[in-house]
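Internal tracking record. Fields below are filled automatically when a chain is submitted to the structure queue. Please do not edit lines marked as system-generated. If the sequence contains nonstandard residues, flag them in the REMARKS field before resubmitting.
Queue: standard
Priority: normal
Entity type: single polypeptide chain
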Amino acid sequence: MKARIVVIGGGPAGLAAALSARQAGIPDTDIVIIERDMELGGILPQCIHHGFGNFIFGEMLTGPEYAQRFIDEIKKTDIQIFLNTMVLDITTEKRIHAVNSTDGLLCIQAESIILAMGCRERTRSQILIPGERPAGIYTAGTVQRYINMDGVMPGKDIVILGSGDVGLIMARRFTLEGSRVKGVYEIMPHPGGLTRNVVQCLEDYDIPLYLSHTVTSIRGTYRVEGVTVARVDEQLHPLKETEEFISCDTLILSVGLIPENELSQKVQVILDPVTGGPVVDEWMQTSVPGICACGNVVHVHDLADDVTEAARIAGKGAAYYLSDTLQKKSTPVSVTPGRNVRYVVPHLIRHHLLEDLTIYFRVCTIEKPVKIRISSDNTILLEKTKRIVKPPEMVKIRLPAEELQSVKKNITVEVVPQ
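SYSTEM-GENERATED OUTPUT FOLLOWS
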């Protein structure tokens, strides 16, 4: 079959991108969404806690409620949806090969593709924890699905390694369900999740957080019997003399997320080595013309609201690519990280902007108070004061379109002391 736009992924990014492309003038029947799960919504159906939609809808929603807002809008359209469908391959000619149990092998020729595959969790093997290999070791997202969707309790005495947002939320969830969380151990000297989650999920429930600690060994033949934890030095090396054994029957890993970019690599999209996601321009277009990317497949966001905003830009970008309304600049302008900035998205400005530019970035270290400075060729385009910046909390800043019209040299984003 043929389609003008194919969206790979039916989570918050994919749904928002498809609706945005439709609003930009692409007919419903020319848009296809491919989702590998049995329902739309991506990760949101298992996120039953509130905290979604405050910026998009102006009210606090749970994950399923947030997803349903977009699913209801999709149902009002004639956008074609393939559920339980796995994309196997994408060619450089934008030909998509997918498979499901109903249609068998599908071949879809697209004019534009939007990558919205989201991200996945790091596992034990990726962080190289030594010890035995018993049952009872799970990633935070896995146990979130077990408890919230399947009604299964994985354990009673819990140790959590890592302080990512999902791990913090699951510490609270385990406590509410009657389990005992013996501690959250974070290898870095600062929490890995949002401050609001540290307060609401740990402090409010008297769950201890141990910074600069890690798990050095796992004990148990058939089931986890306990873990050995230790402090780490400034180089993150465990200190042998500080080792302590903690008995538990379950170890939860919340040690980071990785953008799901195996399909991006198949189509030879250039990836950013820092984010692990595609290099994109201001319309979320990748290095391959006509292929856009959005959401956590580009870089891991803190909020689903930010995923939605970026996806709306990608939907417009795909539509503008098909209608050939984007005017290319003669020389692309790079957006580069400066002092105390780990990475910046978007990476490039390739077109004359039709709207303001939203820049996302994360810092390397905690610093306060600071100024966010955006400059080009020693000319300051924007400067904004911020009380504090932290690595776990993404910074978002909007640069007016009129400031960019005359920019011809690279743009630098930096954090400077106030």
